[in-house]
Amino acid sequence: MPSHAVAALLLPVLVSIIQAGEIGQERKFAVAIFLALTYSTSVGSIGSLLGGARNILAIGLLETVTGTSLSFLDWMIAGVPIALVLTVLTFFTLKLVYPWEEIDTQKIRNKLQEEVGEMGSMSRGKRKLE
User: Fold this and answer.
1) What is the average per-residue pLDDT within 41-63?
2) Torsional sign, CA 89, 91, 93, 95
3) What is the mean pLDDT of residues 73-95?
4) Is 22 helix (H, G, I), strand (E, B) or coil?
5) Alpha-carbon gap, residue 129 to 123, rounded angstroms
6) Where in the cell is it found (predicted)?
7) Torsion angle defined by CA atoms of residues 93, 18, 25 and 36, in that order, rounded to the nearest 10 degrees
8) In sequence order, which residues have a C-beta less than 8 Å from that of residue 38 and are 6 or more positions away?
9) CB proximity list for 46: less than 8 A, separation 6 or greater
């Protein structure tokens, strides 16, 4: 799945978390969590060929220029360690640049559970869509 599609899917989740925790936009945690979404979608897409068109393009260019072909597994053997290292570096960079304070996760959890309860059970039509 392309990284921009992942970001589009997860953006409403982050907005709900920020709203449920009553975390103001000016707080460093709010800034860090949205930056983490944008950075992590790019970093995570490095790990697999399915992460975006640029990975397949890179393999095509490699094969055209050098004659070397990489399989899906070959790409992951190289890409997953890079993605893991970049994930850790991204976390610590965000923590250094936007040092956020402690967040009341229980408050967020309770508010989100309350909202899910208000939605009620899934209708038959919604279940069919899954």
Assistant:
1) 87
2) negative
3) 94
4) coil
5) 10
6) Membrane
7) 20
8) 7
9) 55, 79, 82, 83, 86
Torsion of CA 98, 90, 92, 12, to 10 degrees: 50
Which amino acid makes up residue 99?
P
CA 64 from chain centre, in angstroms, equals 32
Q: What is the DSSP string of 118-130?
A: HH-SPPHHHHHH-
User: What is d(CA 121, CA 15) in angstroms, rounded to the nearest whole number?
Assistant: 23
pLDDT for 98 = 92
> What is the rounded CA–CA span in Å between residue 65 and residue 98?
42
Q: Which residues contact 88 (CB under 8 A, 6 or more apart)?
A: none
Spatial separation of the C-alpha atoms in residues 60 and 54, rounded to whole Å:
10
Mean pLDDT rounded to a whole number for the chain: 88
